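Memo to structure team: turn this sequence into structure tokens by end of day. - J.P.
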Amino acid sequence: MQQLLNTALTGLTLGMVYAAFALALVLIWRSTRIVNFAQAPMAMATTFVALVVIDAGYGYWLGFAAALLSGLVLGAVLERLVIRPAEGGPEINAVILTLGLFIVLHGVAAVVFGNRYRSFPAPFGLRGFEVGGTTIALNGFGVFTIVSVLVVMGALVALFRFTDVGLRMRAAALDQEVARLLGVRVGHMLTLGWALAALVGSLAGLLIAGGSLVHPSYMDSVVVFGFVAAVLGGLDSPLGSVIGGLVLGVSLSFVSGYVGSQLVPLAALAILMLVLTLRPGGLFAHAPERRV
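Reply from structure team:
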């Protein structure tokens, strides 16, 4: 029974990590209609910014804030300098550019920060809580991760449903010409979408790095699982991305705990194929929106 509980709790925390990254993908998709494959190295770069600040003696929370701020700036700059020139062309051009950014950012990070593994601190304890004399697989940092993801999800839902800015961002992503005729400053909305997505991605990078080792490729595997989580829930749904992350995290935790860790990638592929076969738009996406 204890193993079952610990496996489920491990999957819960892992699922929230995947959900954090999936939320960044959902945000960039809803605001620009681009799947950003460079989201992981962007988050990695900002995590190293936080590590530089922390190693300089300024504390975890100042490094945390520096990472989020640098993510906001990095997203805006990349949209303006790299993605904006491809605006108006085939949509695949922007996707190819994000793949190029994936490679470039890895190379730049390796040159600037080095390739060695470095320890990244956590703001809360990594020892599991004790319940009835038994240590369970949930710790302070895990609770912080869960709360952070839920707060971000709520903020994104509120942004797109209840604010004029969210409505303008969606309009700019769906039909730029019509949006311009309605007075929407499309360029500003696209830049804002990239900036906010990079900020959420930076949070995901910090949550993944907490209490573990980081290097320029530490986020690479998260690209796959985060993308699967986003597709499971539907790329248009923040709530769906969180539920997709939870489904994926718990499922893979049970596969790893009871079958074998070597089958985790295969299990993720099987889950993705099953959902795409039964509901191609994802669990929470609306078909008319997914065809845009």
